[in-house]
Predict the structure.
Amino acid sequence: LSGRLSGVFDRLRRRGALSEADVNEALREVRVALLEADVALPVARDLINKVRERAVGVEIIRSVSPAQQVVKIVNDVLVEALGGGEGDDGQRGIDTNAPAPVAILMVGLQGSGKTTTSGKIALRLRTRDRKKVLLASLDVHRPAAQLQLETLAKQAEVGSLPIIAGQGPLEIAARAMETARRELYDVVVLDTAGRLAIDEALMAEVASVKTMVKPHQTLLVVDAMTGQDAVNTARAFQEVVGVNGIAMTRVDGDARGGAALSMRAVTGAPIRLLGAGEKLDALEDFHPDRIAGRILGMGDIVSLVERASETIDRDEAEKLANKMSKGQFDLEDYASQLKQIGKMGSISGILGMLPGIGKMKAQIENANLDQSILKRQAAIISSMTVAERRKPEILKASRKRRIAAGSGTSVQEVNRLLKQFDDMSAMMKRMSKLGQKGLMRGGGL
Ligand code: GDP
Ligand code: MG
């Protein structure tokens, strides 16, 4: 995605306000990216309309490029749609905030990970929250299902409801709640049977358990790898059973996570948990920003913009680029560049952001600038007089000794800095000779 988008975004590098045409062009690519990430079509459409409403006409922030601003808006809208950002609903993790025994009902299709997630939840509640947990399997359809949960309960070192042959799901659920009250359990996790596809009998069974138990939390467990189908599943469960939380499993696979966005949109229920492996400790709280990054595939750009919008002054950057292109780059400019690089913490980061400099990046990185050298170089330059910074040619041996002493460095280091500056100036002169038709053309200088 990054590669495909950067072309479009390069064209957005202009001053003023974002026009509808600019935004639409960028959003066409975003739409494809969303669909590739398994976001359902109507959900993608809604999201894009939101971005358009927010982006068109927005004054371009001077400290970032319009292109980056669009990426950031897309990201923000994604995060919000996933329940984060401004108006963060904070509904993440396991909710046991109710009088004990708190019932958690696990629902979903067969193989979605209900039983495994039940075990994971039990382990976490016992170890992290010091809760006394009872696991009960209402799955009377598959012979081994109740035993599977019992095994997990042993592994998690939590209680499991004794298996009594011949009982139906309602009876087992009633017995689980009774046992929990009598034996003072804090939480009861009720694992239910799933079918391969949604069918009415399954739904009716789960719905009647829910009506009887009135669980505090009805968690829909969905396999992230099922992509678009996840949305239909979620819709059906929401309509017939009613759920107030979603656990998305198999995020350790290569699913892009778009299903989370669709499920959230269709059910209105928060994604609370992520299953990231078969082991019992592979349970994570849902983080909207992480999934948004994964869906958009541009997490790096977004964090770069976040840092840059605090540190980089775009006007400065353009002034600098202008000077560079005219070959009027002096040590003062070099120093101010060092300062920005230092603030960014990443040389390639800032260089990538300066218009037209992308191609120079590798060369400058080869110059071996690292953070400690940056600091020493800045110290050297600040020990120079203004005249020396403007005309480094006047720096002869005695001046260099003075500067080295003043900055706590050595004459060799001063020489190295001057050599680097010379190399850079030479490179810039070459670039400026190539002029408008050469290196600069694609970059927007
Ligand atoms: P249920 O039919 O909904 O109860 O599903 P199960 O809990 O029995 O899980 C079905 C299969 O998926 C098992 O082999 C689990 O080990 C596996 N599984 C469950 N959750 C995850 C997960 O988050 N990641 C991976 N890789 N496998 C999982
Ligand atoms: Mg099961």
